[in-house]
Amino acid sequence: MIAQETLDGLWDFSDPLGSEQRLRAADTNRFALRVDRNELSTQVARALGMQGRREEALHLLDLIDDGGEPVVLVRVLLERGRILLSAGQAADAMPLFEDAGHLAAESGLDYLAADAKQMAAATDPYAAAEWAGTRRTAEGPDDRAEIL
């Protein structure tokens, strides 16, 4: 598994094309383990999706063999969900975020569990509140979910 700090160092979310290039270069230059390369591929797919290259991103995700590694499967679910959400398919994205969150939590991947919960909340704050164990505070038209 690649340390999140290492992945963060390859990312510049304001420059998805540059991030894609750095991630691809890191794949060939720094990481030998298949699980690491598959994990990097999920991030390349994310960069492609952020560039609007959704079909290419989804195809890349289809090619990734998680090899039974929870970190890879969680990242595949997250990135597929992000792509669907950005395409306006929130109803299709939500179950992917839920599955990613549950698997990440069960696997001790706390950062990814939090990421999945955040994406679920962005997708559907009401459904995410029920799933994530939160409660509602009603304060008018701008209701907020409060973490328990």
How many helical stretches? 8
**N-to-C order of helices and strands:** HHHHHHHHEE
On the 0 to 100 scale, the average pLDDT is 85
Helix fraction by DSSP (H/I, runs of at least 4): 55-70%
> Runs with pLDDT <50, length 5+?
134-148
The end-to-end distance, rounded to whole angstroms, is 30 Å
CA-based gyration radius: 16 Å
Gross morphology is globular
- Tell me how many strands there are: 2
Which structural class matches the secondary elements? mainly alpha
Give the strand order of the largest sheet, numbering strands 1, 2, ... along the chain.
1-2
**Percent of sequence in beta strands:** 5-15%
Q: Major beta sheet, specifics?
A: 2 strands, antiparallel
Give an overview of the whole structure:
This protein is globular. α3 (34-50) runs antiparallel to α4 and α6 runs antiparallel to α7 (110-123). It has helices at 4-10, 16-29, 34-50, 54-63, 70-86, 90-106, 110-123, 125-131, and strands spanning 134-137, 144-147. β1 and β2 form a beta hairpin. The model is unreliable at 134-148 (pLDDT under 50). The chain has 148 residues and is mainly alpha-helical. 70% of the residues lie in helices and 5% in strands. The chain has eight helices and two strands; from the N terminus they run ααααααααββ.
